[in-house]
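TEACHING EXERCISE
Course module: macromolecular assemblies
Task: Read the component lines below, then compare them to the predicted structure of the full complex.
Student: A.B.
Group: 4
Components provided:
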Amino acid sequence: MILVIFMGTLLVLLGYFIGMYFWGSPTAGVIIAGIVWVIMTLVGYFGGDSILLSSAGAHEIKKEDNPRLFDVVEEMKIAAGLPSMPDVYIIDDSALNAFSTGRDPQKASVAITSGLLQKLNRDELEGVISHEVAHIKNRDVLLMSMAAVLLGTIITLSYQFSRIMFYSGRSSSRRSSSSDSGGAGAIIAIIGLVFIILAPIFANLIYFAISRRREYLADASGALYTRYPEGLASALEKLGDSTIPVRAATQTTAPMYIVNPFRNAGRSATDWTSTHPPISERVRILRTMGGASYRDYEKAYETTKQGEKIIPDSALSPRATVPIRSPSAQGALASADVFGPGGYPDLTTRTRDTQNMLWDMHNYKQVTCQCGTLLRVPPNYPSPSIRCPHCGTVNAIG
Amino acid sequence: MNCLKDRSSMIVVEWQRIALDYCPKCRGVWFDRGELELILERACLDSTGLCLPDLLHRPEAKTAEKPRRCPICRDKMRKSYLGTAPQVLIDICRKGDGLWFDGDELRLLMNQLKIKPTVGGAAEDKMLSFMNEFFQADQQ
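Instructor-supplied answer key:
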């Protein structure tokens, strides 16, 4: 990836200038930059997924906890050609978001908030999961974490050395200017100084550009796996309309989510300092697609973005057309004109399934009152019986 | 979840496929965002008048009642009036995590509805009738 090479070059240059500025030896600087980068990579690689998942508040679930979600993940695993089934996690949060993690397609995880799981119908859920699985398949997690480490190294080096410069300012510049040959040396020193200060800014911009590009590619792959770009488009619209911020998201984990978790918190959500492209644009591209192949995505992208290209040529070579399938029976919104069990809108079923699963995960005990009301009692509830607020019967807790 | 008023353990009560958090001690009720969406969808379906489902952004009521903290995000909640006649004073999370009904307010509501059952079709009033039926046994 060209952009990652740019960032790597930035790091090398940074090392070069730091070395030159502080010790008169650019080579030493590059070596030191390399060492710091290796250390941070190792920490990132081995620390990895579990830190990320627990900081997001994700709990792993098994197939019996939520067969609906598991089925979708399994279908997408097959469609994408993943070597093994990713672990599935639930985040107890009414915000709408999802992310995937895993440096290796064989040991990957997909996480989704309870809010999103409730909100989406079958086709939309498939769209979101296919996008996350695409990130796994395209090894985006590995790419983004390498880029993040590069970025982190650049920022760390730049920050530490500019602090040293600030505090020991004049003495070191006198040292280096006395060993340099006058004018030319001073100019290089100034360029180096400016570079050290600006490097993190450029690295950040490159990082955001990489992130956005991978998002488009994941959208394209997702459309191919599902054969139904409208599913993801519709899901993204729901995500865009929602104003709930994801509670556990931080600046570091933001690129992992399917949409920018800070889009409503005032931070730049749609411009070149954002980790994600604007939702409306992503939706427009997906809805312009005439088929479900990468060529169709590329065509839609070029139409929307006035001639810019996105899909790498290797993916554009297969010439087979991929027709879009029709929406699934569960995809269409259930009609909601009957007010009774079985006639409820599909949203109720999904909400009940998801919330009840969460209470079960927290070991709530279930008591069914004779009037039909269900009572759920937290573990360690202080009383052995509970009075039903609907009919007044006192029920013993089993 | 612990009760916002007296910190005692709350339970979950599911009736007609809506699950609410309930405090058996003070009879207060927490209406979570997701459940709110369900009940409003139903209330709007058979309401005759204009359906304004956005309960979470209402004008603030000026009362002397002590502000409560949201059980999800822990921030102080706003107070507002719900319904036309009868009315209840509720606490609303500023982030939209949900609504809180004090046990006393609900009892007041039930007494008022006993005297004068709602005939109006507004979604809010439907919601209050639903609450009334839900917690029927708490009318004493």
